[in-house]
């Protein structure tokens, strides 16, 4: 498994991974599939903001997963916190791609000076919760029934990883 920065050439693969999750999973709380154009807008806005979009490629060169992070909330007081997502194609799950992607996102967020990484996970998504625990995240909250999909109420589990030990925000913040 190889990790690299995503490029616009990866957008069809990223679109397929994203839309498969929209169609089949409670991990993403929407029924609205994206288009190549909307994914391109998302990709460009991430890149122009200096935010990563990374991909995992298998031995045959197929993109099997991706990860990214972006703003957690818009108000400026949240600017040292980012929220990430990681998605792996169904046939490639359990082979280590998710962990590689998440570990790289942690490194990148720390390297860019962010203080906290947030994961907002469907409460039934034991696989994602296990992955995050293995990478050092702690469950810090559960919001019962704040979402719905496929006829069920869904709980949102919030997990965080504090990326540095600064007692106060760095000077200039
Ligand atoms: C969650 C997801 C990203 C994990 O990626 P993955 O490539 O399947 O996971 P990995 O093979 O890297 O496993 C990483 C660790 O998590 C654990 N894990 C992964 N899936 C698990 C599962 N379903 N149950 C229990 N543990 C699991 C593994 O045991 C592994 O631990 P190890 O490194 O000590 O062996 C992937 O399954 C996925 O894309 N799921 C659908 C989308 C999704 O839920 N995204 C997250 C939204 S918050």
From TrEMBL:
Q: Which residues form the N-acetyltransferase domain?
A: 1-164
User: What are the TM regions of this chain, as residue ranges?
Assistant: none
Q: Which UniProt keyword terms apply here?
A: Acyltransferase, Transferase
Keyword Transferase in annotation? yes
What domain of life is recorded for the organism? Bacteria
Family matches, as SUPFAM superfamilies: Acyl-CoA N-acyltransferases (Nat)
Q: What is this protein called?
A: N-acetyltransferase
